[in-house]
Write a structure and sequence with these properties.
Low-confidence stretches: none
Strand order of the largest sheet: 1-2-6-5-3-4
Structural class: alpha/beta
Number of strands: 6
Distance between the termini: 32 Å
Strand content: 5-15%
Order of helices and strands: HEEHEHEHEHEHHHHH
Shape: elongated
Number of helices: 10
Radius of gyration: 18 Å
Length: about 200
């Protein structure tokens, strides 16, 4: 068994949260990495960690039925929410060494850790992420977005997205489209690099 599980943060649900830096520092050969996102997401902008086994959330119980209950399993998704649900399911099935990657692929990409990404498109700069957000919010008055500098910091962009999530603009007409915009811009922010260069 690995030091990763022993050093992970215990959760009341019975699994443990692992920080992306802990996983990046090293993983034991017996660690079973399971990505619970949909197949298209693994090949999308956020990519996936090399060596993951795909098992979408809807099928994770079925896939896990074949694994020994003492298998050390680390679950991954976009943000850590779906993988936390999957971790809870595995604990309920009797698995004893279950972990969730806190922050998911958003956190992994934000730290510029190695990722398998099928796209060869250059990654956006922080300024391009700001421009995308401005373009998507056309017709909405959002002073916090308008006041962002031409090359804002990741923290400034993240704070604006958090504020928009907490209090959407009054001019927002389609809540689902607005949520989709925030999700897509947050994905772009996770992979954004200064100047838009590839890692």
């Amino acid at each position: 068994m690995s030091h990763l599980y022993d050093s992970a943060h215990p959760r009341p649900e019975g699994y443990r949260d692992v920080d992306v830096q802990q996983l990046a520092a090293g993983r034991s050969p017996g660690l079973h990495l399971v990505d619970v996102r949909e197949p298209a997401e693994l090949d999308g902008l956020l990519g996936h960690i090399e060596g993951v086994h795909p098992a979408p959330l809807a099928t994770v119980r079925e896939a896990a039925a074949l694994w020994p209950r003492d298998t050390e399993v680390l679950l991954i998704c976009r943000s850590g929410a779906r993988s936390a649900r999957a971790a809870t399911q595995l604990v309920q099935m009797g698995f004893t060494r279950v972990m969730n990657l806190g922050g998911g692929m958003l956190a992994w990409n934000t730290r510029a850790l190695p990722v398998v990404r099928l796209t060869t498109e250059p990654l956006p700069s922080l300024g391009q992420v700001r421009d995308m957000l401005r373009a998507r919010l056309t017709g909405m008055r959002v002073p916090a977005v308008e006041s962002l500098s031409p090359e804002p910091s990741r923290e400034d962009l993240s704070a604006v997205l958090d504020a928009l999530q907490a209090e959407p603009p009054k001019e927002r007409k389609d809540a689902a489209a607005f949520e989709k915009t925030l999700r897509e811009v947050r994905d772009l922010l996770a992979v954004a690099r200064t100047g838009g260069s590839r890692p």
